[in-house]
Amino acid sequence: MAVQYVGLPSAQRSDFVAVVFNSFGQSQGEDEGKLISSLTEQLLTRTPKEDLHAFCAVDSGTLIAAVIFSRIRFGNDPRIVHLLSPMAVAPDRQRQGV
Q1: Cα–Cα distance between 12 and 42 in angstroms, integer?
Q2: Contact indicator for 63, 12 with CB cutoff of 8 Å
Q3: Contacts of 90 (CB under 8 A, 6+ apart)
Q4: Is the distance from CB of 43 to CB of 70 less than 8 angstroms?
Q5: How far is CA 68 from CA 1, 30, 92, in A?
Q6: Fewest 10 Å CB contacts: which of 15, 61, 65, 88?
Q7: For position 92, what pLDDT does the model report?
């Protein structure tokens, strides 16, 4: 089955956070994995829906990559700006073009 790129289904939020934890935990250490996965959970639960865009890559029903775009507001500035962070790929799927 080919990798599918989809918006984040709410049922897979824990898998989304786990991919972030595993990716950052393996590359930067467990403390960093905990920190970034906690930030991810907060973004997913506290950011207004209209300011959050979360996407994932799914292969054979398994979430293998995660990315969040969250809107940044600057006072009265009318521009719409999004921050790409975090972005993570499961350690065993990195360097494979996901």
Answers
A1: 15
A2: yes
A3: 19, 22, 23, 63, 64, 65
A4: yes
A5: 24, 21, 20
A6: 61
A7: 95
Tell me how crowded residue 96 is: count the other CB atoms within 10 A of its CB.
10
Residue keyed to tokens 């918006």: 7
Residue tagged 């600057």 (tokens)? 74
Tell whether the model's pLDDT for residue 11 goes beyond 80. no
First and final CA of the chain: distance in angstroms? 14
**∠ Cα 55 49 4 (to 5°):** 15
Question: Given this model, what pLDDT does residue 98 score?
Answer: 87
Q: Read off the tokens for 82.
A: 């999004």
Residue 68 token pair: 């969040």
DSSP the chain: ---EEEE--GGGHHHHHHHHHHHHHHHH-HHHHHHHHHHHHHHHHHS-GGGEEEEEEEETTEEEEEEEEEEE--TT----EEEEEEEEE-GGGTTS--
Is the model's pTM score more than 0.85?
yes
